[in-house]
UniProtKB/TrEMBL annotation:
Organism: Pyronema omphalodes (strain CBS 100304) (Pyronema confluens)
Protein name: Rhodopsin domain-containing protein
Membrane-spanning ranges: 6-27, 39-59, 92-115, 127-150, 170-201, 213-234, 254-279
Domain Rhodopsin: from-to ranges: 53-281
Main localization category: membrane
Keyword Hydrolase: no
Location in or out of the cell: Membrane
Membrane topology recorded in Swiss-Prot or TrEMBL: Multi-pass membrane protein
Superkingdom per UniProt: Eukaryota
A GO CC annotation given for this chain: membrane
Keywords: Membrane, Transmembrane, Transmembrane helix
Keyword set includes Transmembrane helix: yes
Length: 326
């Protein structure tokens, strides 16, 4: 991949991240009632977008530097030598560390969006929801711990001349931590994506096109993010850069774009319930504030519906839906 193309895609990723965070904030502002979960979801998506922008900006800076060297007539070897300095590796470590936040915080926002419907969930789905929250927390802590402690202290990640008797340890070019971080992301994604699927299956009767499309869009983007995690794992091993092989700039750019796709698809997938709520609020602004029952239209919220509940649960859910966005 050409560096110019990589730079353009990174800029597009920054724009998408900012827009998604802005839409989430707009939804919060337009709500008549703002619960703690609304605030948690909005803050989480804002943090995720900030991490994504930070990570993408680092790669943009490197792309600009490469283009400047290319304009001066530097060859591939000279460019790679120019990138082999402590500042570059420090920035890469910071960018990859930020990527963890950009991958996990959208999951927090997504789960926060489902929480108001929690009481309408069947028992098995409530159990899955609890397990998913625990898995999300544990995998995030595990990925952070991997980045912090695998090469400890973290300054070793940009120390290109370690003291005698000490091995060089740069986590971004070592197979094990890359494998662990990607695997933990895949595991957490599978659990989070299982929530809307199981919820859809629990809805009695035929599923509407809106329900199927809503879940399908989330799952499709989630699978894309998972696929990019596999690509990062396999690419790191098969391309050999974790064994000391220097990748050509074009191949390096493909790995960088793999990170971009992984993050952006995750951001969009886990933003869809809130984006749909924003559209619904705009189109149904005059909808009744409280009906005491859950209408079929309200059941389609979040693109999944909420299943059959006892009457008191249905009334409680309708209150939640009418007082905020659920």
């Amino acid at each position: 991949m050409k560096t110019e193309t990589m730079l353009g895609l990174m800029i597009l990723g920054i724009i998408i991240s900012v827009v998604l965070a802005g839409l989430r904030i707009l939804l919060l502002i337009r709500q008549d009632f703002r619960s703690k979960l609304d605030l948690i979801g909005t803050i989480s998506m804002g943090i995720a977008a900030a991490f994504a922008v930070f990570s993408f900006a680092i790669w943009c800076d490197q792309a600009v530097q490469i283009l400047q060297w290319t304009a001066k007539g530097y060859d591939e070897y000279q460019i790679r030598q120019g990138l082999s300095n402590p500042t570059t590796f420090k920035n890469i470590f910071a960018g990859d560390f930020a990527t963890l936040g950009a991958l996990w915080f959208p999951k927090v926002a997504f789960l926060a969006a489902y929480s108001p419907a929690y009481r309408a969930f069947e028992k098995k789905l409530r159990l899955l929801f609890h397990i998913t929250i625990a898995v999300t927390i544990l995998t995030f802590v595990g990925s952070i711990a991997t980045f912090v402690f695998y090469c400890f202290p973290v300054s070793r990640n940009w120390d290109l001349t370690p003291p005698k008797g000490t091995e060089m340890c740069i986590i971004v070019v070592i197979w094990n931590p890359i494998f662990i971080a990607c695997l933990l992301n895949i595991i957490s994604d599978i659990f989070v994506l299982a929530v809307p699927v199981v919820a859809l299956l629990q809805i009695p009767g035929p599923k509407s096109r809106t329900q199927r499309f809503g879940v399908g869009a989330i799952i499709g983007l989630g699978i894309l993010s998972i696929g990019m995690s596999f690509y990062r794992m396999l690419g790191a091993k098969l391309d050999g850069y974790t064994n000391g092989k220097l990748l050509p700039i074009g191949e390096r750019n493909w790995h960088i774009i793999g990170n971009l796709i992984m993050v952006v698809s995750s951001l969009i997938a886990f933003s869809l319930p809130s984006l749909r709520a924003l559209v619904r609020k705009r189109l149904k602004n005059n909808r009744s504030r409280f009906t005491g029952t859950v209408s079929s239209e309200d059941q389609q919220h979040l693109g999944i519906g909420l299943g059959r509940a006892e009457s008191w649960k249905a009334a409680n859910l309708a209150r939640i839906q009418s007082s905020s966005r659920f």
